[in-house]
Amino acid sequence: MLMSSILTLVVLGSYANAFPMGRQFSACCDLSNARLQVPSNQTQLVAPTYAPSYIALGVGTQNYTCNTSSSAYILYGAVAELFDTSCLYGTPAFDSAPTVVYDAWSAAYDLVTPQELITTLGLLPNPTVLGQHYYVPNPVGTGLSPKWDFTSSGATAGNPNAYVIGVKVGDLPSSNSSNIDNLMINGIEGELATEIFRVESNGGQPPSQCSDANITVKYTAQYWFFNSSVSNVDLI
Ligand SMILES: *[C@@H]1O[C@H](CO)[C@@H](O)[C@H](O)[C@H]1NC(C)=O
Ligand SMILES: *[C@@H]1O[C@H](CO)[C@@H](O)[C@H](O)[C@H]1NC(C)=O
Ligand SMILES: *[C@@H]1O[C@H](CO)[C@@H](O)[C@H](O)[C@H]1NC(C)=O
Ligand SMILES: *[C@@H]1O[C@H](CO)[C@@H](O)[C@H](O)[C@H]1NC(C)=O
Ligand SMILES: *[C@@H]1O[C@H](CO)[C@@H](O)[C@H](O)[C@H]1NC(C)=O
Ligand SMILES: *[C@@H]1O[C@H](CO)[C@@H](O)[C@H](O)[C@H]1NC(C)=O
User: Fold this and answer.
1) Which residue range(s) make up the domain with 126?
2) Residue nearest atom 3 of ligand 5, based on CA coordinates
3) CA distances, 48 to each of 22, 34, 105 (Å)
4) Domain assignment present for 124
5) Given pLDDT bands bounded at 50, 70 and 90, which one contains residue 125?
6) Residue 235 within a domain
7) Where would one find the signal peptide in this protein (predicted)?
8) 39 lines ligand 1 (CB under 6 A)
């Protein structure tokens, strides 16, 4: 365990200098100037013209189960830790973070948690976890639905409405087939957001043919949350 920790730090160490010294904020920074950019040659993602309420860097896994009829994997969930990335907005590190963190995440040992990874990378001086992303039974239909849950983290902890469950309304495949699609998602339950975008995805795609019943594939992505009714009381 000690040896693997040392090796992990060696693996991660080479990425630490990719980030400038963090600005000294303890919580979510002002995003009033932030605007989501989407490719102009498509109609799947329509970016709001106004600022988001939150921007998170998701670090986690996409889960797949094998469809034995087709020998292809089917998505059946995901788990990710959502880190506040608002304090990097407007810096080069904001744009590079999903890829830099993905490279470290995909190289890290399986026992390394997203928190350990982010802390070791020095991405933020006080990495702030906004919440968690996972799947729950669809509240209005069948199957599973994605949920973003800020009810037990940070400034929104204890607010039972600080979550959103969504339904996909736009899907733009990444230009790199290793990366999961960019998505536009509408909120169907919860007050955290009325609209969510998953962009800047890195990794997360399964192999084209099943080898095991269930697999998890590491990924990172930016999540943008719009029109939140849940305020971050520490917003400055
Ligand atoms: C759309 O633009 C992206 C870059 O923003 C490019 O990678 C992609 O090939 C373009 N697609 C089409 C169909 O022109
Ligand atoms: C599994 O694969 C079969 C055969 O290609 C297909 O008909 C079926 O819809 C797939 N099931 C799911 C849940 O995607
Ligand atoms: C997905 O995989 C993670 C482990 O990465 C696990 O904790 C989670 O329960 C799995 N299931 C679903 C439905 O996401
Ligand atoms: C495609 O994405 C993967 C995972 O994010 C990355 O390792 C690879 O370098 C990318 N390929 C290109 C051509 O950018
Ligand atoms: C794979 O995941 C599915 C869905 O969660 C579960 O029902 C099944 O028991 C799992 N199979 C194995 C071999 O773990
Ligand atoms: C979302 O917020 C923007 C800016 O605060 C506002 O102009 C817009 O009407 C809101 N939209 C919805 C659907 O609430």
Assistant:
1) 2-36+45-226
2) 65
3) 28, 11, 30
4) yes
5) low
6) no
7) 1-18
8) yes
